[in-house]
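Lab meeting, item 3. Inverse folding demo.
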């Protein structure tokens, strides 16, 4: 998720010819820290292991204290705009998933191609393949799978008859439950993150069973995740694991010793006591308040299919300004979009999976540039 801020003055538009890093971006990940620290500390990173010569952009890493009593800090990466840092918007990138590292957004996606009101002028937000907490996200897998030819017409009709109105996660009818068990078996054969790509071993696998015991058995420090085949996209994730866990890299990034024993792409040990059951009402509140919003989906993501996201954005009941149409990059269709009133845009990215920019970085970069510049996609 990206939030866009501008300095507390009249916002300025960005030119469409801006270089790839022509915006301020901040990526955060939470690390508990056990020793007192200043409110904010940061240092410039001039070089990184594996990259020849000095970095071609200004990178700063550091910590921001967020809870003085519990001594908790945010670790951040900050890349300064290569355009006009004094005028360009500031993007705050919050990576989703179960405590997935912001480093992934930095290197695999667009990154390199309330206690007090902050003294920033919030302009809007961008969110990709978002999970709302509603049953609409998971239930959308059925019509998506049918539309993509993964399940037959007869099986699709059987699910519709047996499970009408029921929740995919907790069906109340035994026949519906059997249908979903079969459906899960079918999905187990494909890559849910992008149905076009081969199914590979996850670089950050989920525990097979639920509960604290399973998590405890799964979380072995300094034990690398399974290595996928070389032709798999997530082979790069295993390389990131080894790179990020070397002492020379931690030193270059100014990681405090003792803050984290092992870097993981995603950490499934979630130490929170409250969950937001639905974010849709918050989307409605923010967009109704005049903030710009871009909601986008990779159209081959089975994890959070675009058909569900399209459905809940439509359920906000905003007037349609520009109905379903194609948008283009380099003369080719890059996806489809609908523009609503209250400055809400829903867009698909053609051929992309769950982390859309990881699959289609050129198209996603063009999309975000146009949106930042108040241009049509």
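The presenter then showed the designed sequence:
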């Amino acid at each position: 998720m990206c939030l866009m801020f501008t300095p507390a003055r009249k916002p300025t538009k960005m030119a469409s010819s801006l270089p790839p890093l022509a915006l301020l971006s901040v990526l955060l990940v939470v690390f508990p820290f056990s020793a007192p620290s200043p409110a904010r500390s940061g240092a410039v990173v001039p070089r990184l292991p594996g990259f020849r010569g000095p970095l071609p952009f200004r990178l700063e890493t550091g910590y921001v204290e967020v809870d003085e009593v519990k001594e908790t800090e945010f670790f951040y990466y900050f890349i300064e705009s290569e355009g006009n840092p004094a005028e360009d918007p500031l993007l705050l990138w919050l990576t989703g998933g179960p405590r997935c590292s912001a480093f992934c957004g930095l290197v695999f996606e667009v990154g390199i191609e309330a206690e007090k009101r902050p003294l920033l002028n919030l302009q809007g937000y961008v969110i990709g393949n978002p999970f709302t907490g509603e049953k609409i996200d998971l239930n959308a897998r059925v019509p998506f799978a049918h539309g993509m030819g993964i399940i037959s017409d007869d099986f699709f009709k059987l699910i519709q008859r047996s499970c009408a109105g029921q929740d995919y996660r907790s069906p109340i009818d035994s026949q519906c439950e059997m249908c979903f068990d079969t459906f899960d078996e079918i999905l187990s054969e494909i890559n849910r993150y992008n149905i076009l790509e081969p199914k590979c071993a996850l670089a950050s696998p989920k525990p097979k069973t639920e509960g604290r015991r399973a998590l405890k058995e799964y979380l072995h420090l300094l034990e690398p995740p399974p290595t996928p085949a070389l032709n798999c996209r997530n082979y790069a994730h295993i390389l990131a694991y080894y790179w990020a866990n070397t002492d020379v890299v931690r030193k270059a990034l100014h990681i405090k010793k003792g803050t984290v024993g092992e870097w993981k792409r995603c950490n499934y040990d979630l130490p929170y006591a409250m969950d937001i059951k639905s974010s849709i009402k918050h989307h409605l509140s923010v967009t109704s308040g005049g903030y710009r919003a871009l909601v986008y989906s990779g159209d081959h993501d089975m994890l959070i299919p675009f058909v569900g996201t399209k459905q809940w954005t439509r359920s906000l009941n905003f007037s349609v300004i520009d109905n379903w149409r194609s948008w283009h990059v380099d003369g080719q269709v890059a996806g489809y979009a609908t523009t609503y009133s209250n400055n809400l845009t829903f867009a698909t990215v053609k051929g992309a999976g769950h982390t859309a920019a990881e699959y289609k970085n050129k198209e996603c970069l063009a999309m975000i540039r146009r949106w930042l510049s108040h241009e049509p996609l």
